[in-house]
Structure formats: C-alpha cells, structure tokens
Specification:
Blueprint: H1 4-28, H2 31-48, H3 58-74, H4 91-97, H5 103-112, H6 116-127, H7 132-139, H8 143-161
InterPro entries: RNA_pol_sigma-70-like, RNA_pol_sigma-70_dom, RNA_pol_sigma-E_actinobac, RNA_pol_sigma70_r2, RNA_pol_sigma70_r4_t2, RNA_pol_sigma_r2, RNA_pol_sigma_r3/r4-like, WH-like_DNA-bd_sf
Family: Belongs to the sigma-70 factor family. ECF subfamily.
Protein name: SigE family RNA polymerase sigma factor
C-alpha cells in the first residue's frame, strides 16, 4: 500500500513531467535524452521528498536538478561526439529558408548550436521567464556569468538565425 508521501510524489511527477521534459529537450535537443534526464532528476527528488519543507519549491528544485544533470553530462567526453552523416550544421538552414521547416524546429536547431550552459541560460531566461538571479541560482553560478552567457548566446542565435528575425520577435 502506497503512503501519502508516495501518492503526493506520484501526483507531482505526473503533473510536472511535461514541463520538465520540454525544458530538458530545449536544453539538449534530444527527446530520448530529455526523458532520461528528467527521470534521473525525479529519482533524485524522490530520495529527498520527505525532507522537502517548501512544497511550492518542488518544481524549481526539479528544474534545477534537470538542468544541472544536463550541463554536467555534457561535460563528459563521450557526450561531445555528434553523428555527422546527413546532419551537417548547414543542412537545416537551407531547408528553413525554403520554408520546409517550421520556425520552432529552426529555433530548436539553433539552440542546439549553443554550448550547454549558454543554452540553459536562454531556456531559463526566455522560455521559463526566470530573472537573472533565479537563473544563477538554478545553474549554481554568479549573476554576471548568467548575463555574459546569455549575451553570447543571443549573439550566436542572431548570427545563426540571420534573416528570419525570430530573435527580435518579428517573424513573418
């Protein structure tokens, strides 16, 4: 028989899973990897579930754990390997300019060109609308680091997206 703690955790996990998966996907660009990392983050949360005092901070804790797992994992040498056959950096640009790929796919692919910490900064600041301070707390870094990483990331996205005007929010 499940305890009330187990039932509470199950309800929280079911409710937060879609948002955590989307966040992980935006940071890593791979749905399968996103699912794996979110599962790991939820396992870590389950281990401390009974000690969590502020229930309203659970989603923030799960999000922070998910992002940190992704950033830490990206530092491992085997994670830096990328398949190249048919997945060249320029293959999606020409497809998007021909109108064959929708804007969301273009943005996700552009995000994938960013290093993990910069990608996490952009996702947390602009997708989750966190403040600089909140983003720094999630990533475990200074506010200055968040500002510089975000500025570099946006400059890269502007260069990659070029004529699409998506970064400015004036997409046609």
């Amino acid at each position: 028989m499940a305890t009330s703690h187990d039932e509470e955790f199950t309800a929280f996990a079911a409710a937060s899973l879609p948002q955590l998966r989307r966040t992980a996907y935006l940071v890593c660009g791979d749905w399968h990897r996103a699912e794996d990392v979110v599962q790991d983050a939820l396992i870590r949360l389950y281990r401390v579930w009974r000690r969590v005092e502020r229930q309203e901070a659970l989603l923030a804790y799960a999000r922070r754990t998910t992002i940190r797992l992704l950033v830490d994992e990206s530092r491992r040498p085997w994670r830096r390997e990328r398949p190249t056959a048919g997945h060249g950096a320029d293959s999606w640009v020409s497809a998007s300019s021909a109108g064959a790929v929708d804007e969301r796919d273009v943005i996700v692919r552009a995000l994938s060109t960013l290093p993990p910490r910069r990608r996490a900064c952009v996702v947390l600041r602009y997708y989750h609308d966190l403040s600089v301070r909140e983003t720094a707390d999630v990533l475990g870094c200074s506010e200055g680091t968040v500002k510089s990483q975000t500025a570099h990331a946006l400059a890269t996205l502007r260069a990659v997206l070029g004529d699409l005007d998506l970064v400015k929010g004036t997409s046609s």
